[in-house]
Design goal:
- The chain is mostly beta strands.
- Helix content is about 0%, strand content about 45%.
- The protein contains one helix and 86 strands.
- A five-stranded mixed beta sheet has the order 60-66-65-62-63, with no helix packed on it. Strands 1-58-57-56 form a four-stranded antiparallel beta sheet, with no helix packed on it.
- The radius of gyration is 45 Å and the shape is elongated.
Length: about 1050
């Protein structure tokens, strides 16, 4: 909020003037360009079948299935496959460029190079569960096997029907289970394993089935372990120990086959997939989990493995069978890093003339084609919402965030991530009235960007990552504005205020214009009327109105924006519209139409010319207009604010997206406002040793900031911390201890936030916020007995008063302004000279080192005792006196002087009958060190008064009134003695009581109160030099006390 602009600022927060630092504008300048972000270096691709002249695949960014020609790279979409799901579908070569797929009981066959060639076949009549083992002969033959061993060779007719063909040469199906083992991608044969059924006497045999004729030929030399043997070109290949085994199909048919063992280059390790290219076995291996997948070629005839690609990207294996490598008449396909651009590519593996394997990148895979559809900027941070096409899924939204202000290694770097609805469901792109998406974003909330997503019947408003949001039963819902804590939402004509951090929302009323700025809610409440209110944490009560302004307009604003100390209002697209300077109460009109308010300027996008125009208003008038850029407005949009251009009302920058999808960030040249801040603490006071947590939000990004804490009464700096660059906020804490670990004095402390804006690094810090806090139960100041550090005056009644009888002690606590609050009874003080009575009462400092001031007393027998003060500050209440020692009746005056020798402990002065003044140094352990003589001649004084530190030098001082009424001042020398005395005045014999009461008026210096014979109490303040100020009347009626202490 702009605290200076609101009457009755929030306690604990304030701000300096928000007027501009200069009146001269500069020129706009581009300060950053942000290329279209990339969520991945390469788009995903799944090769499915390697045909003779091209391949079938799925690629991120392309709909459905695509056929790509090897030689030309030409893509041919396959619309007939649009209903074929990727999940649960097996693709296999059907010979040449023909491709087949199976999904359940459906078999599809077609030539992707020929439009409309796909034909589907219903296999449900062949049994409940069946597997298509092979499709060959250019899609005219299919071997289908039922679970249980019954195989069917089908003629695939062009009209979608099938004709079953006879199988010959296999053992009878009544006694044997004939199982097709491999899945042929090229060639005319399929290996069949024939196993005797239970109870049938026989042996396991292998047969090569000719898919053209249906005739099976018995073959030998294949071990029983070859359960996955598959025909690959001219070879039959199967997995074996340490690698694979291969044998030529022709040798099997001729009866001369001898399998060849080909070792895996990653043994031990994982052999993920394999195939045959010419006279080489291609193997995809991985030495260990998490290691790269390596593609190698191993000669069948023997020889070392040749690495083809060291980093293969694995597609989803369930989308093709049997594994990761797509195979077929055209060779093998893999996704690897061999690409002219250096990125991933679809690699085509074919047989070279010299018997090796050629690797050709037939399809480069650049980054996915992401498009910026929403652009916002807050606190020097650019945020783009992107539509990102997916593989086998609907287009999704992602967010790209680039901080340009603040600190850390992330400044200037873009981070990306997909968007989630409350951390649960991935958000998908869909149609929207204004732009290409139905998700709109508002930035500046502490918890993250705020999004609105709509359906045909509802809308959700949520913060990305929070596990809750707000649901509305109408799509007519939009986020109006956000700040660090709150969100204003309009839904179906009603306005709401949401606090994401507390998951709380209240209804504000009719959806008029509204805006949020640093904790202040501004709303249009009537024609020309605007109110500023302060929402309370948790929204348990309605926001309290703090300020009302009037523009004189005859309409109620439908739009309100606030930036720094400027308020923009508009009554619709035709106006009127205006600006109100909240710091000067100046109002002036501006042109209507969609605009964004910045710090001292307005920005508009002219649809006709494409010009992004900035109008300077920082002098409280409509100034010059300049063109920031020329970019066309997106088609179909009449208001593209937050879509392809935006304003950062904190940093003062403007950002827009060019036609190249690059974001450009510009400074405007308009003078920036002075930094303001809302600052405060989670607690208003602390006990030393605890933590006083401080946090703030700044109106602009900062180069540095400083927190300074001073004791309110003296101005002494007790704590200072300097923070570095920050985009929006900062935090720190103080433990209530001084340097060296000494607890701070009780009382009020002022904190001050000093800042240096990010665009003025190296300049002198200026005040952005101030406030107060308190220290309680720390060190008690001189003559203070409460936890709040205020001065305490004690008196003993000589007559009944305040409901208490003679002899009761009363406590007066200072109000901090030179007066005292109503007295509180302490306890009965048994004063007198008789047995068990007290003949001296000395309000003292801390006798026992517990941090609380105590009261020293002397009994009639000469015993010196002290009453420990309680943590609640009750003098003598509920306390048992503790003995210090005897023999103190030799003194006719006992005076608490404070710390006279500079050792950190309070000391006691005592004058004997001869006029000798003695110093008893305090030990802080419940007693005093041996006495030290200060000097003689002190019997010339009728009264000696301990006053603590009079001149602010940290050393205790002394006052004395002589027998003629002269008042004398003794400055302490810090060594246990005093400097030469100075006479302050005469006539002080009129007072029958004088007490040094500490700082009673909050001016940082100690005072003295004196009672005259009429019972009037007077206060004497001192200057910083120790001079006496004219007396001030405190009040009458003080003669009800026998004495004051």
């Amino acid at each position: 909020m702009v605290a200076a602009a609101i009457a009755g600022a929030v306690p604990g927060s304030a701000a300096a003037s928000t007027t501009s630092t200069t009146s001269t504008s500069g020129s706009p300048a581009e300060v950053a360009t942000l290329p279209a972000p990339q969520l991945a270096a390469s788009r995903a691709d799944i090769p499915l079948v390697a045909g003779a002249t091209g391949f079938l695949h799925q690629e991120q960014g392309l709909p459905g299935y695509t056929w790509t020609d090897y030689a030309s790279g030409t893509d041919t979409a396959q619309p007939q496959l649009s209903a074929v799901p990727a999940s649960g579908t097996t693709f296999l070569s059907a010979g040449g460029d023909h491709v087949a797929y199976q999904n359940g009981a459906k078999l599809g066959v077609g030539d992707p190079t020929v439009a409309g060639s796909w034909v589907t076949y219903d296999l449900s009549s062949l049994g409940a569960v069946h597997i298509v083992g092979d499709v060959s002969q250019n899609g005219t033959r299919a071997l289908v096997q039922e679970i249980g061993g019954i195989s069917h060779l089908l003629q695939l007719n062009a009209d979608g029907t099938t004709t079953e063909l006879p199988l010959t040469g296999l053992p009878s199906g009544t006694g044997y289970t004939n199982s097709a083992l491999g899945y042929q991608n090229s060639g005319d044969y399929e290996l069949v394993r024939s196993t005797p059924k239970s109870g049938v006497s026989g042996t396991v045999g292998y047969y090569l089935l000719n898919l053209d004729t249906g005739a099976a030929t018995s073959v030998s030399g294949i071990p029983l372990s070859a359960t996955s043997a598959t025909v690959r070109g001219d070879y039959l290949i199967w997995r074996s120990t340490g690698g694979v085994s291969v044998v030529k199909v022709a040798d099997l048919l001729a009866g001369t086959a001898t399998p060849t063992q080909v070792a895996s280059p990653a043994n031990p390790g994982s052999l993920l997939d394999y195939g045959v290219v010419g006279q080489q076995v291609v193997m995809l291996t991985q030495v260990a989990a998490g290691a790269p997948q390596v593609l190698s070629a191993v000669p069948i005839a023997g020889g070392p493995a040749v690495q083809l690609d060291a980093t293969v990207s694995l597609p989803v294996p369930s989308n093709q069978f049997p594994g990761y490598l797509a195979q077929g008449p055209g060779g093998i396909l893999a996704i690897g890093a061999t690409s002219p651009s250096g990125g991933l590519a679809v690699q085509h593996l074919t047989a070279a003339a010299d018997g090796t394997v050629d690797v050709t990148a037939v399809r480069g895979l650049p980054a996915p084609a992401e498009t910026t559809v929403t652009l916002t900027m807050a606190h020097g941070q650019v945020r783009q919402m992107l539509t990102v096409p997916q593989l086998n899924a609907a287009t999704r939204f992602a967010a790209a965030t680039t901080p340009l202000a603040g600190s850390g290694s992330g400044v200037g770097k873009t981070s990306t991530g997909y968007l989630n609805n409350g951390g649960f469901t991935p958000l998908q792109a869909g149609p929207c009235a204004l732009d290409a998406s139905c998700v709109r974003e508002a930035d500046g909330n502490f918890y993250g960007p705020v999004y609105t997503t709509t359906t045909a019947t509802s809308a959700d408003v949520f913060v990305n990552g929070l596990e809750f949001g707000e649901n509305f039963t109408t799509p007519d819902t939009r986020v109006v504005d956000v700040d660090s804590s709150y969100v204003v939402i309009d839904s179906a004509g009603t306005q709401h205020l949401w606090e994401p951090g507390q998951n709380a929302m209240i209804t504000l009323g009719t959806a008029n214009g509204a805006a949020l700025w640093m904790g202040t809610l501004w709303r249009a409440t009537g024609p020309g009327q605007f109110q500023a209110s302060l929402p309370q944490n948790g929204l348990a009560v309605a926001p309290a109105v703090k300020r009302t302004i009037s523009t004189g307009a005859t309409c109620t604003a439908t739009e309100v924006q606030v930036a720094q100390h400027w308020l923009y209002w508009s009554c619709g697209s035709t106006g009127p519209a205006g600006i109100y300077d909240l710091s000067t109460d100046t109002e002036f009109g501006v042109d209507p139409g969609p605009a964004l308010l910045g710090d001292g300027y307005l920005v508009r996008h002219d649809a006709a010319s494409g010009e992004l125009r900035l109008t300077d208003i920082h002098t409280d008038s409509v100034g010059a207009t300049s063109v920031l850029a020329t970019v066309p407005q997106p088609a179909g949009t009449s208001d593209d604010r937050g879509i392809d251009w935006t304003v950062d009302r904190t940093s003062g920058d403007v950002a827009y997206t060019g036609t190249d999808n690059v974001v450009h960030v510009l400074t405007t040249g308009v003078p920036a406002s002075t930094v303001t801040a809302t600052g405060g603490a989670w607690n208003n006071g602390i006990t030393p040793g605890q933590q006083w947590g401080f946090g703030f939000e700044a109106s602009r990004p900062l180069a540095s900031w400083q927190l300074v804490i001073r004791r309110a009464t003296t101005g002494q700096v007790v704590y200072s911390y300097t923070g570095g660059a920050t985009a929006a906020s900062g935090a720190n804490s103080w433990n209530g201890l001084l340097q060296g670990g000494t607890p701070a004095f009780d009382g009020t402390y002022d904190w001050q936030l000093l800042t240096v804006p990010a665009d003025a690094a190296g300049t002198t810090p200026t005040q952005s916020a101030t406030g107060t806090m308190g220290v309680y139960y720390g060190r008690m100041p001189f003559h203070s007995y409460g936890e709040n550090g205020q001065s305490t005056l004690l008196g003993v009644l000589n007559k009944p008063a305040f409901g208490y009888g003679y002899g009761y002690g009363m406590e007066y606590t200072g109000n901090g302004n030179g007066t005292y609050a109503s007295p509180v009874a302490s306890t009965y003080w048994n004063l007198g000279t008789g047995p068990g009575q007290l003949n001296a009462v000395v309000p003292f400092g801390d006798v026992n080192g517990d941090g609380y001031n105590d009261v020293v007393v002397r009994t009639s027998s000469g015993e010196l005792e002290y009453y420990p003060n309680q943590p609640a500050g009750d003098v003598l209440n509920n306390a048992t006196p503790r003995t210090i020692g005897g023999g103190w009746n030799i003194y006719n005056s006992l005076v608490s002087v404070g710390d006279l020798n500079g050792d950190g402990h309070d000391d006691l002065l005592a004058r004997d009958a001869s006029g000798e003044l003695w110093l008893y140094p305090g030990t802080g352990r419940g007693g005093f060190a041996p006495r030290v003589a200060i000097g003689g001649g002190w019997n010339t004084y009728a009264r000696i008064i301990g006053v603590g530190d009079l001149n602010g030098d940290g050393i205790s001082d002394l006052l004395a009134v002589d027998t003629h009424g002269g008042l004398w001042r003794y400055f302490g020398n810090g060594k246990g003695g005093f400097d030469a005395r100075v006479k302050l005045g005469t006539g002080y014999w009129i007072y029958n009581a004088m007490v040094g009461v500490g700082d009673v008026d909050g001016h940082g210096l100690n005072s003295v109160v004196a009672r005259d014979t009429a019972g009037v109490l007077w206060r004497y303040d001192f200057t910083a030099s120790g001079a006496l100020e004219p007396r001030i009347r405190v009040g009458g009626g003080w003669n009800i006390y026998s004495n004051l202490y």
